[in-house]
UniProtKB/TrEMBL annotation:
Keywords: Hydrolase. Residues 113-139 are annotated as: Disordered. InterPro entries: Amidohydro-rel, Metal-dep_hydrolase_composite, Metal_Hydrolase, Metallo-dep_Hydrolase. Gene3D superfamilies: Amidohydrolase (3.30.110.90), Urease, subunit C, domain 1 (2.30.40.10). It comes from Saccharothrix syringae. This is Amidohydrolase.
């Protein structure tokens, strides 16, 4: 067999190769002794002949899954892939036709893409008023929910998104609980999961009562209580805290002063409460380069920031890694990835050090493969 370093070439997905001398991240969140992982036709297989890629004693993870991004350009998917983010889930775009084409093209030089099309929002909500989504994005009450869901389904999204804004003085009235519940019910009847943007305990409660599958964002204005966290855990509702986005919002907030009630500590404490209650937490960054967003967050590298912030909030490094791999895959029904196992996609991230001992080790990227195709990595492109 020929021997190659892990980042030396791109392998066609029909090629057979074996990554040798690697510690493999197991389903229980631990790394085993050095072993080999074989790949054929883009999936993990039992050992086969072919090129040997020397893992040099590194640590092999499933490709990371970022459950909350906004994509404007294919380069953002390529940036994600370089940092080991092999799957990105877009959470709302006004350019869905372009993103759907990117999704369906399934280019191995870019991260895999899934999306939601335009989100549901209240009449005169931010998505319509400021972010350029079509007026049909607005939902005018529970009787309008069926229309909205039918229009989204015609666009072939992978899941649906609902934006639940806060009730603030001199701002448009947000979607009511009955409207959110109607949207979720119609979506579920159509077999679609629903992600709800919620940034307060009140909004979390509305999303939970409506039957949302995923709640995204952690509050920065109040803290999720232990009782609410237990209810979320008992319901099986997953949470994507997007801590890196919440921190960035507060760091870049353009106000004469930051209101005292707005504090990143709320987001950390809420995530900690959810974790203690046993809620399912998945990794999401809200990465975007949109001028209409409250803050910009870089694609790809921010996933590593989010891993560290989840650990700061009380998750063990192993739990944070599962939040970015197997748990994210399970929540969004991506049954072909998220684990390194026979028959699963060969979406792989090789790092030099053990990230269960030091979560920042995920930044030491040695190799990345999407469906068995090697990608450029930071510093080696």
């Amino acid at each position: 067999m020929r021997h190659c370093p892990p980042d030396s070439r791109r392998y066609d997905i029909t090629h057979r190769f074996t990554i040798t001398d690697v510690h493999v991240f197991a389903a229980d969140g631990t790394f085993g002794p050095p072993t080999s992982v074989a790949v054929e036709d883009g999936v993990v297989v039992d050992r086969v002949d072919g090129v040997e890629v020397d893992g040099r004693g590194g640590y092999l993870l499933p490709g990371l899954i970022d459950t909350h991004v906004h994509v404007d350009h294919p380069d953002q998917l390529a940036a994600g892939l370089r940092w080991g983010v092999t799957t990105m889930l877009d959470m709302g775009t006004r350019r869905w036709d372009e993103l759907r084409a990117l999704r369906d093209a399934d280019d191995d030089a870019r991260a895999d893409l899934r999306g939601a099309s335009s989100p549901a929002c209240a009449p005169r909500g931010t998505a319509v008023r400021r972010m350029g989504h079509p007026a049909s994005t607005a939902v005018r009450g529970p009787r309008d929910a069926a229309r909205w869901v039918a229009e989204r389904l015609a666009q072939d999204p992978d899941y649906l998104k609902v934006v639940l804004e806060e009730r603030l003085p001199f701002r448009p009235k947000p979607l009511g609980p009955d409207t959110v519940a109607a949207l979720v019910a119609h979506a579920h009847r159509a077999g679609k999961k629903v992600v709800v943007h919620a940034a307060s305990s009140r909004a979390y409660t509305v999303a939970l009562d409506a039957g949302a599958d995923v709640i995204t964002h952690a509050p920065i204005g109040d803290t999720v209580t232990a009782d609410l966290a237990r209810r979320i855990a008992a319901a099986g509702t997953a949470v994507s805290p997007t801590l890196v986005m919440m921190r960035t919002i507060l760091r870049t907030l353009k106000l004469p002063f930051t209101p005292r009630r707005l504090n990143f500590a709320h987001a950390v404490a809420s995530t900690a409460a959810l974790h203690r209650a046993g809620a399912t937490i998945v990794l999401g960054t809200d990465a975007n380069a949109d001028d209409t967003s409250p803050a910009r967050v870089a694609h790809g590298v921010s996933a590593h920031d989010e891993l560290a912030l989840l650990v700061d909030a009380g998750l063990s490094p192993s739990e944070a890694l599962r939040a970015a791999t197997s748990r994210a895959a399970a929540v969004f029904g991506l049954d072909d990835r998220g684990l390194i196992a026979t028959g699963r996609r060969a979406d792989l991230l090789l790092v030099a050090r053990d990230p269960t001992r030091d979560i920042t080790a995920t930044r030491d990227v040695v190799g990345v493969w999407k469906r068995g195709v090697a990608a450029p990595v930071p510093g080696r492109a």
